[in-house]
Amino acid sequence: MMPDLDPNTDLSFTRTLAVPRQLVWDCWTQPRHIPHFFIPAPHKVTAVDIDLRVGGRFNTVFEVDGAVIDNRGVYLEVVPVEKLVFTDAYTEGWKPAPEPFMTAILLLADAPGGGTTYTAIARHRNPETRKTHEDMGFFDGWGTVVTQLETYAKGLMR
To answer: How confident is the model over 9-32, as pLDDT tens digits?
Structure first.
């Protein structure tokens, strides 16, 4: 079910991927897959630590232009093969983050022909944060991530 979107604080897009939903889910929930798609190339994911449960950690480390960026978050909702919600508003143990940025919602559904309907939503605390994320390149960046995900997942099907 598609959540209500607030155009003032939410960013979203939907794409159809030519890979099965289970494989998309596996890529998003198994640490070995995350470095292959989670940040637009040539940037890199250098570490992943996942505890896939509500309140469990979703921590990653990025290397962007030589800078190391530590991303800590938790899962808010885990509905296997259907919905994944995580945020950087908290870290494991429900410790509030000093400067939270967003909550991500990924929705997966079967698409005709065995593919996946993939919806990504980024929710922000206020319109200013939403605008910052949009100006940072939300649509290009998250679009690149999903393209990388689809390409990587297709390679796993061989």
So the answer is: 999 999 999 999 999 999 999 999
C-alpha gyration radius of the chain: 15
Residues forming a β-bridge with 106: 84, 120
Record the tokens describing residue 120, joined without a space.
Answer: 């990504």
Question: pLDDT of 91-133, one tens digit each?
Answer: 999 999 988 999 999 999 999 999 999 999 999 999 999 999 9
- The C-alpha atoms of residue 1 and residue 70 are separated, in whole angstroms, by 32
| Dihedral sign of CA atoms 126, 127, 132, 134 in order | positive
Question: Do 42 and 26 form a contact (C-beta atoms < 8 A)?
Answer: no
Query: Does residue 9 contact residue 125 with C-beta atoms inside 8 Å?
Result: yes
Taking a C-beta distance cutoff of 8 angstroms, is the pair 151, 143 a contact?
no
Is the previous residue joined to 40 through a cis bond, with omega within 30 degrees of 0?
no
Sign of CA dihedral 86, 101, 8, 117: negative
User: How many helices (H) and strands (E) are present in the chain, helices listed first?
Assistant: 3, 10
**What DSSP string describes 64-94?**
ETTEEEEE--EEEEEETTTEEEEESSEETTT
Cα–Cα distance between 38 and 66 in angstroms, integer? 17
